[in-house]
Amino acid sequence: MPSPKKRLRTKTFIGISSGSACVSSLKFFVMEISKNEKFPDDLEAAIRELKRERNAILLAHYYQESEIQDLADVVGDSLALARAAQQVDKDVIAFCGVHFMAETAKILNPDRTVVLPDLDAGCSLADGCPADEFRAFIARHPGAKVVSYINCSAEVKAMSDLICTSSNAVKMVEHFKDDPVIFAPDRHLARHVAKQANRPDLIVWEGACEVHELFSAKALAQMKVRHPDAEVLAHPECEQAVLDQADFIGSTTGIIQHAIKTSAKTLIIATEDGVFHSIRRKVPEKTLIQAPGQDESCSCNRCPYMRLNTPEKLYLALRDLKPEIRVPEATRVRALQPIELMLKLS
Ligand code: SF4
């Protein structure tokens, strides 16, 4: 038997209370693992060995389970992972994040094999901006530059002039200071950027992240009363009523860095609680509280798509080199331009 430290979870799906009204609008897909599949006792060692055999790099988003973060070569937010993907010198990229992130890695690395442990790890925000509807939206605003948040499909990226992340969105919009700008697909980030960049004229695609939208401003106000010394840190994908109560608004990396350096001992955090792992590594003495959701009986502020990746699926992805991400070449070439421009300007 492996030591408890070495033994990873063997469950194949993170359960979320299905009776909750607030998760009923989320789409759930579960990539089943065959019951006949056998896993090594020491799954962590087996994954590390497969990484060596395949000459693979493992990139993981902060919203992944801590077991996956601990196995990763690079843990980061969308911008850091795009930068890491740009510098890869391995044959295989195992991407533990969601589909649009793995697609971005493939766009930057057409000759490398990119695998995503669960192909159903999508994103409600990206799914809420279908390419054909977005094309028609752009056509209604001739002459506007298109700045798209990285949380969108390769096809939407291919229609964009510039990609941004929550770390650099203000700077990317300021790049087109003399032009009308379409900002897609997150309306909450757009509103935040419009304020910061003094661009009330932004033309906004009205999408939203179903996870960040579920934080409750009312319950947060009550929580602040119970923790009067706590600082509130929020991601700009949250609703305005939540951001209005925040002491700090920033990207995933910004939140982690602020949590580490602030003198506050108790932090209420309005983003996915996968970030807690990186914060606790640096400041284990701090008390971290996830901001409350609209239904306190469920884990509705955990991204169900991110959590579809598991160590077992990662093992299979490295062993079988699938599911593999593919992007049609014409789309890839067009989508590469706004991504590279973002990386150059960041
Ligand atoms: S947290 Fe929201 S924006 Fe991020 S991957 Fe999940 S659904 Fe998409």
Give an account of the 3D structure.
With 346 residues, the protein is an alpha/beta fold. It folds into three domains: 105 residues, NadA-like (Rossmann fold); 104 residues, 3-Layer(aba) Sandwich (Rossmann fold), CATH 3.40.50.10800; 79 residues, 3-Layer(aba) Sandwich (Rossmann fold). Helix content is 38%, strand content 13%. It is built from 15 helices and twelve strands. A four-stranded parallel beta sheet has the order 2-1-3-4, with helices on both faces. A four-stranded parallel beta sheet has the order 6-5-7-8. Iron/sulfur cluster binds next to α5.
The structure class reads alpha/beta
What distance separates the N and C termini?
48 Å
Spatial arrangement of strands, main beta sheet: 2-1-3-4
Annotated CATH architecture of the largest domain: 3-Layer(aba) Sandwich
Q: Tell me the name of the CATH homologous superfamily of the largest domain.
A: NadA-like
Shape: globular
Associated small molecules = iron/sulfur cluster
Number of helices: 15
At the first level of CATH, what is the class of the largest domain? Alpha Beta
Radius of gyration: 20 Å
SSE string: HEHEHEHEHHEHEHEHEHEHEHEHEHH
How confident is the prediction overall: mean pLDDT? 90
- Could you tell me the CATH topology label of the largest domain: Rossmann fold
The number of distinct structural domains comes to: 3
Helix content: 25-40%
Q: Give the oligomeric state.
A: single chain
